[in-house]
Amino acid sequence: MPELSTIFVFMTASLTLNLVPGPDMLYVIARSVGQSRRAGLVSALGIGGGIVVHTLLLACGLSALLISIPVAFEVIKYAGAAYLLYLGIKTLITKENLSLNGALPQEKLSRIFRQGVVTNVLNPKVALFFLAFLPQFTDPSRGNAFWQILFLGTLFNTSSTILYCGVAWVAAGASSFLNTRPGFTKAQRWFTGSVFILLGVRIALSERS
C-alpha cells in the first residue's frame, strides 16, 4: 500500500478530477433527468463497474497492451461511439416515450447498469487516463504494483461513485420539480438523446494522444 502522504495527495487529485464535468457525469445526469433518480443512481453504479474493469486491466498490464496497438484502440473507440449513438438515436426516435402519467418509460435497472458498464469500458480515453494517472502514485519499494493499482483504483472508484450518486440525486430532484411544466417531458427525451449522441461523437473524434 502507498504511504499515507501519497494517498492523501492521490485522493485530493482524484476529487479534483471527479468534480470536473466529464462524459461519465453527463451520462449520469442524462439518465437522471431523462428517467428517474433510481436510473441515475444505477447508472452511477454502472460507471463504477466499468472503472473496476479498467482498474483490473491496468493492474494486469492489459491496458498498456491494448492502447499500444492502434487497431485495438480504434476498434474500442468506434464500438463505444456506436453504442452511445445507438442509445441516443433510439431515445430520440422512440414514439412510445410517454406513460399514462406523462413520464418517460422506465427501463429495467439491470439493463441500465449494464449500459453504464459498457459505456465506460468502451471509452478508450478512460483507459488512457488510468494508464497515465494511477501509476504515478505507485512505489516499487512498497510491494507489488498490482495490489497498489487495485488499491488506488478502488479509492478513485469509491470517490467518483459517491460523487456521481450525489449528482444523480440532485439532477433527478430538479427534473421532478420541472416535470409539471408543460413540454418538459419532450425536452427530457431530447436532452437525454442529444447527450448520448454528443458523447458518442466525442469518443469517435478522440485521439490516443
UniProtKB/TrEMBL annotation:
GO molecular function: amino acid transmembrane transporter activity
Membrane spanning residue stretches: 6-29, 41-69, 75-93, 145-178, 190-206
InterPro entries recorded: LeuE-type (IPR001123)
Membrane topology: Multi-pass membrane protein
Keyword tags: Cell membrane, Membrane, Transmembrane, Transmembrane helix
A Pfam family the protein falls into: LysE
Taxonomic classification: Bacteria, Bacillati, Chloroflexota, Chloroflexia, Candidatus Chloroheliales
Domain of life: Bacteria
Name of the protein in question: LysE family translocator
